[in-house]
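Hi W., the zinc ion complex you wanted:
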Amino acid sequence: MKKTLVAMMMAGAALVAAPAGAQKADDANGIIDQGMNHSQVMVIAQEMTDGLGPRLTNSPGMRRAEQWALDKFNGWGLSNVRRDGFEFGRGWEIVSVSARMTSPRPLALTAIPVAWTPPTNGAISAPIIVAPMSKEENFAEWRGKLAGKIVLVSLPADGSEPDKPAFRRLDGDDFEKLEAFRQPKYDPEALNRRLDRVTFPEKLDAFLKAEGAVAWVRQSYRDGKLVHGEGYNYRAGHTLTLPGIELAAEDYRRLARLAKSGSAPQLEIDSNVRFDDSDTRAYNIIAEIPGTDPKAGYVMAGAHFDSWVAADGATDNAAGSAVVMEAARIIKALGVRPKRTIRFVLWSGEEQGLLGSLAYVDKYLASRPGPAEGEDGNLLYYGWPNRYPITPKPGYYDLKAYFNMDNGSGKLRGIYAEGNVAAVPLLKEWLAPYASLGAGRVVAATTGGTDHVFMQSVGVPGYQFIQDPLDYGSRTHHSSADTYDHLKAEDLRQASVVMAGMLLASANSDKTLPRFPVPSQPSAYDPFKYKDPNE
Ligand SMILES: [Zn+2]
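Structure:
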């Protein structure tokens, strides 16, 4: 019986074996088979989220994740798998946190330490004072009133009741808006306005410390008991000196109401966090599938691997990282040898100002004047794109196309052409096999806020996909709800297939994307504008 079955199977195999000289499976069909029928994307994403947890830049969790990613790429047989470091700052992690009201009645509060704030070193207990401050001019009102207090520094805001569905996919109207070319509007004053905002936390910390406050509390910017805990003072010598926590908006407003209507509530806070200064460098993770033509340059896919700490950084951005890794696995599994090298990068330091991709641009693509390494990330983020002239480096023209994913778990609906109208036909051609998967659109609009931005700013063709928003903006982005539960398997399988398809098409194409001229200092959009004294 057994023997007969084996014989039958062998006969069957002989019948379906491809005849000599037969055409091999088309790339797109091979990708769809590998990405749909043999998908690993959800397994990769689950290890990254449930298994590794949050990946704050330079935290011990991020170090474990970096090693895991290197092992994965090596395990799939990718080449030149490596860390690529850049100077960042301190490591930091949360061990535990508790916050409760002890008077006028006992009540557990939903809280998270603000990233890179110091520990309380055991529970501290103090009355609150509500002292909203958002600029230095506000300090005078509170001078002499904060000693021994836990200071609630946010203005208690109205509740943010949802007015749109929390989970959403794009429709015709949304795409119509994206189709239009948007004129760039260069405003040289915009930089200074932003710099004032980003330097305020350090000024507030120094004021609170000088006044003898014991800790500060801010209000979550979302309702529904979501907390986030973003903090930006991570550089050695610049971390804040007082413990700071973020409270759920409902908890914060209740405290503020009680303080207005009776005697000040008493809080007990235990913020058990720790710094790790063993290595101040952050690392991008790089892996490659080498091309057959060393003169043809390379194409690249990337996603930021770092996250915030309130949950497991699932939609932001284990989703994109898992898709980039799955695209690498798919293409490797096909056994194809692309003409151009395909490079896969997991960026670090994105959440602090696109710092990993900036370091890459600065090291391999183009330089701009002024300091880079060791500068405050927020200043780099806002300041770097406004420095001229841009000086291309030898690798500037080698990077033929970069594809980024960082807008949650929603499936890919197409790509933003970033105002490069000349690139539209070729991008459309490469996406064409995936149009029936919903991903065929190419729109002229630009999109910002993630790792293609600094490439675009020096004239390198870096692109980000259009994605269905799902509950990214309403609920999961940076929040305590950013867990594996909000990753959608069908969407991430589709995204992995499209990402692999774009990479292989651009790696093998006879044509390369038309580029912009190397950007030079733009003229002001409104040359007759006066400086607003209130800004
Ligand atoms: Zn992100």
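The pocket of zinc ion is lined by residues 304, 316-317, 350, 406, 450 (CB under 6 Å).

W.
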